[in-house]
Amino acid sequence: MRVGLFVPCYVDAFHPEVGQATLELLERFGCEVEYPFDQTCCGQPMTNSGCHKESKATEELFVRNFKDYDYIVAPSGSCVNHIRNNFDAVAQTDDVKHVRARTYELVEFLHDVLKVDGFPWAEFPHKVTLHNNCNALRGLNIASMTELRAEKFSKPRDLLGMVKGLELVDITRPDECCGFGGTFSVFEEATSARMGQDKARDQAKSGAEYVTSSDSSCMMHQEGCAKRLGLPTKYIHISQILNGERV
């Protein structure tokens, strides 16, 4: 299958290794992956701030870049949630509908589309706890929500369970927001920082050596809070673990 790789702005600027790991991982499973060089932001920051009209040009460019691919895959639940569920500034043409329906976050693409059954190259002999981004959890249903009386499932846990040596540990309040929230962390800095500190303390209490997530944005925030608190926890994107990277 022909896959268009979408690398979010913050991944490109701060964690390019996540984009590289995503590319390599998809190629390991036989995907023909291409990276459109004209891609920019998907428009999520503007839409999240209520500036829907301002995101129109970005959304139009995104559609032009990715309309000809079988699937679009990104290592970011928040960006994928925006494309799939909030891509409303543009006219809903067939191309737009195709892009919205065919855009997947990396974990759900591996789990639901490729239906992978193993990562024989991956070994991660560490205690790891999982953070599910709010948009991925509640917008993309990447896992069951603890506040609902429903059947429990977790797509990231299913994949991480296939990694040799990896031990998953739980935190006390797994679904609580870490406070990043994109522009929220800018306009409500004090509240955002306190939420991030609470999350980082909870992660450290679990005994986890590493925190992993399908969203680098949340982990950037949490890692900053953990460092300021003097906590030893390390942070790594799930694509890097599944791709067999050693730390």
From TrEMBL:
Listed PANTHER family: LACTATE UTILIZATION PROTEIN A, UNCHARACTERIZED PROTEIN YKGE
Residues that span the membrane, as ranges: none
Example of a GO MF term: oxidoreductase activity
Protein's name in the database: Fe-S oxidoreductase
InterPro entries named among the record's database cross-references: Cys_rich_dom
Location of the Cysteine-rich domain: 3-84, 128-221
GO CC, one annotated term: cytosol
One Pfam family matching this protein: CCG
